[in-house]
Amino acid sequence: MSTSLLLAILVIALAATPSAGSPLPAADDSAAETGSGVEELVLANGMRVLILERPGLPLVAAGWATHSGSAVETPGKTGVAHLIEHLLFGGTEVIGTTDYRRERELIDRREELEDARRSASPPADVERQIERVEERLRELRRKGEYALLYTEAGALGINGVTNQDLSYYTVSIPPARLELWFWLESDRLLRPVFREIYDELPVVEEERGQRILSVPGGPARTRFDARFWGEENVYSWPAIGRPEDLQSLRRADVESFFRRHYRADRLTAVLIGDFDAEQVREWVQLYFGRLSAGAPGPQPDPEPPSREAAAAAEIEGFEPFELREVCECRPQVELRFRSIPFGHPDSPVLDVVAGLLNGRTGRLHRGLVLTRDLAFSASARHQPQRRAGSFSLVAEARGGGREPAGLDALQRALEEELERLRREPPDDRELEKVKNQITTDAARQLKKPAGLAQRLLIYDALGGWRYLEDWPRETQRVTAADVQRVLDTWLIPERRAVLRLERTAGEPAPRTGGER
Asked: Residue 504: pLDDT band by 50, 70, 90 thresholds?
């Protein structure tokens, strides 16, 4: 697409904006710069925009997130959050179509035919009618135009991600083309067209197969997740959705979820790079200021209880269990504990516990791989989420044997290493080494603008982006006594589930690199 045509589209888009000609909502006075250099703007519609100038960068890391993921879906309609992530790349009323008015008529007709197809007595020729409408729609559409506009502008890393607590959309774009990002992103938030829903559902189902069904142990872990969280818990289904629910999704489900959860007061945007901050502030108001804050009424996603209350609630109702499954994978054991939500005061301490156990010099590798020669690998993971969290220890058996006795020994070894950490707390040298390694690794990851932008979006959706500023300081304050306390509070048998994966009978052990 030529530059002149792009500018023409931009002019048409702004002229067609419902709020064009009316005063733009002004940002309120809650703009502040923190010690990290991040400037926070809060618009009158509730949207938050984080700006960080970094002179000399060739690209601006830009992105935005909605603070709603699969955890706010309605049971029976799971997968809609992830489906919307796909559909938002399909364009708007001015991107992706040659004649939106005609396209809209055909989209409505396609929905009527979908109603007929799913009725008790579908017309005999309904499939033929659907195909005729789809042919006419294809003639009107400019497939891939959204991505093409970015690519021709020199942008890289166009991406969207959905998990249980949020969806975010990121790209890296030359500073000279930054206004294009403001227009494209505000336009698809303001008037998206959810094209090809029924063509996209099989794509999502295929992705589900790649993420879950084709991954060794994937189906077993999905069943383990569901039981670990419990049927009524919003984390019990995967972000990609349940297969039976995906097939039932309709346009009305998509549009309803979008209206409820993509409103301005649920959004955070981030810009990191070499740009004129004053110009960016103007664009923030010009483009994002026109978004709706949503109708008055209850919040679309009720705030979870306080971190302390949420953590205490995790003790209630959880029953320890053990799940035994088979898979075409290396035999392994996972110990998983119910723990704390994002932002809880004990979160940095559990990060340190994971650090003590992880790595080539960590206690799990030294104990299970080097000393006992039981495991091919062993690791720990702390995963705090918006409403709750988990802490896992995982070990893969050496040699790939199927004997349950081998998994018994592996499970005992994991339990013994955790118990040894209780009996033999880290000395000052070990603790300092781990804390420094954690903060150094984090700092290395955040040096990349795209990684920092992603972290800011994720943390703000989970509970507040300033956690990124506070976390290193709080990590350095962790003491050996803190480690002992959280071990005795969160990582106890009463809060634990066990997954044991044995290799399918007759399957050879998976080929990997070296055994150490």
From this structure: confident
Q: How far apart are CA 342 and CA 344, in angstroms?
A: 6
Cα(102)–Cα(388) distance, rounded to whole angstroms? 47
**CA distance linking residue 113 with residue 238, whole number of Å:** 30
| Max CA pair span of the chain | 77
According to DSSP H, which parts of 301-379 are helical? 307-313, 347-357, 363-364
Record the pTM: 0.88
Which residue from 94, 98, 101 is spatially nearest to 10, judged by alpha carbons?
94
pLDDT tens digits, residue range 279-326? 999 999 999 999 988 655 445 555 555 555 555 555 567 899 999 999
Give the count of alpha carbons within 13 A of 406, CB side only. Answer: 19
Q: State which amino acid sits at residue 140.
A: L
Q: Which residues of 439-473 are buried (b: 16+ CB within 10 A; e: fewer)?
A: beebeeebeebbebbbbbbbbbbbbebbbbeebbe
Q: What is the pLDDT of residues 65-122, one digit of tens each?
A: 999 999 999 999 999 999 999 999 999 999 999 999 999 999 999 999 999 999 999 9
Question: Helix, strand, coil: what percent of the chain each, to 5?
Answer: 50, 15, 35
DSSP type of residue 298: S
Q: Pick the closest to residue 434 from 336, 493, 363, 498 (CA basis).
A: 363
User: Is the Cβ–Cβ distance between 176 and 57 less than 8 Å?
Assistant: no
Could you give the CA distance from residue 291 to residue 243 in angstroms, rounded to a whole number? 33
Say if CB 395 and CB 472 are below 8 A apart: no
pLDDT value of position 516: 37
pLDDT tens-digit readout, 118-175: 999 999 999 999 999 999 999 999 999 999 999 999 999 999 999 999 999 999 999 9
Q: 326: closest CA among 404, 225, 381?
A: 404
SS3 state of residue 389: strand
Nearest-CA neighbor of 75 among 322, 222, 244, 258? Answer: 244
Q: Tell me how many helices (H) and strands (E) the chain has.
A: 19, 12
d(CA 247, CA 258): 19
What are the DSSP E strand ranges found in 2-118? 32-33, 39-42, 48-53, 60-66
Give the C-alpha separation, 137 to 135, whole Å.
5
